[in-house]
Amino acid sequence: xxxxxxxxxxxxxxxxxxxxxxxxxxxxxxxxxxxxxxxxxxxxxxxxxxxxxxxxxxxxxxxxxxxxxxxxxxxxxxxxxxxxxxxxxxxxxxxxxxxxxxxxxxxxxxxxxxxxxxxxxxxxxxxxxxxxxxxxxxxxxxxxxxxxxxxxxxxxxxxxxxxxxxxxxxxxxx
Length: 174
Hints:
The protein starts with a helix and ends in a 19-residue tail after the last helix. By secondary structure, it is α+β, with helices and mostly antiparallel strands. The protein is globular. Helix content is 37%, strand content 22%. The protein is built from five helices and five strands; from the N terminus they run H-E-E-E-H-E-H-E-H-H. Helix 2 (65-88) crosses helix 4 (134-147). The longest helix has 24 residues, at 65-88. It has a domain at 3-17 and 64-155: GMP Synthetase, Chain A, domain 3 (2-Layer Sandwich), CATH 3.30.300. It has helices at 3-18, 65-88, 105-108, 134-147, 149-155, and strands at residues 30-35, 38-43, 46-50, 94-103, 119-129. This is Osmotically inducible protein C. It comes from Cyclobacterium qasimii. InterPro entries: KH_dom-like_a/b, OsmC/Ohr_fam, OsmC/Ohr_hydroprdx_reductase, OsmC/Ohrsf.
């Protein structure tokens, strides 16, 4: 069990029990076309590239967006396991999450309007190394499945609001 994780999140829980406004947050990412289909992303003080393999007109300098989605899910699951286990006093030796997404490119390419452009199925395998009892691990699994933010975003409808701004000096949009 990570004492740092336990102390940090226990402190957050105690503070928010006194002031619920502390639980509200906003994350921002800026994504901008770089070259071909490569995209430069900025999140807080971090820059990372999203790209496609060469077979999809990319330069293969980074994972593609759907791979980042799988990484987001896997990472969030691992973090949620660590946080929940720490708060419940459950000892974890290691947690590894393997994700796999099944996709049919016909939707993205506009070939078949009956095919979704995103994943049709995401498979998640979690490997937990722990000396805890099977009952405690089942309790942990149930909590993580209920509390993982990225999993929640994938299995429940999230309201997405889009705003489009068109910049064209030759033909200003009125």
